[in-house]
Specification:
Strand content: 35-45%
Number of strands: 7
Helix content: 25-40%
Radius of gyration: 16 Å
Amino acid sequence: MRKTIEDIVAEATIKDIHIRYCRGVDRMDFDLLRSCFHPDAVTDYGYFGGSIDDFIASARAQIPMSLVTTHNTGNQIVEVNGDTAWAEHYTVATHRMAADALGPERDFVPAVRYIDHLECRDGDRRIAR
């Protein structure tokens, strides 16, 4: 199927949303992180799910437990269907953990696959689920 200019712009916007999400986590910029989601967004990370407010509260508690966090995104696929879209992003996250009772300073490096459902509402495209 041939893509329109509007589809290409929507794809670029969605990829940018994901990169801003990663930056928000890495920089503990919770306003930036929140801006990636519609206010009524629902999250499901497997180990955690809830409203965007629940997610931000959890992130505020969990992210500072790492000394440094970095996300590196590789493969991204976006399928746009008018005002809705589906996106899949492969990311490797590195979390530098402080020395503690479990061991010396170390890296926790999960490979992550984000699957986002996005909506464009009044010209504002963000993650809905």
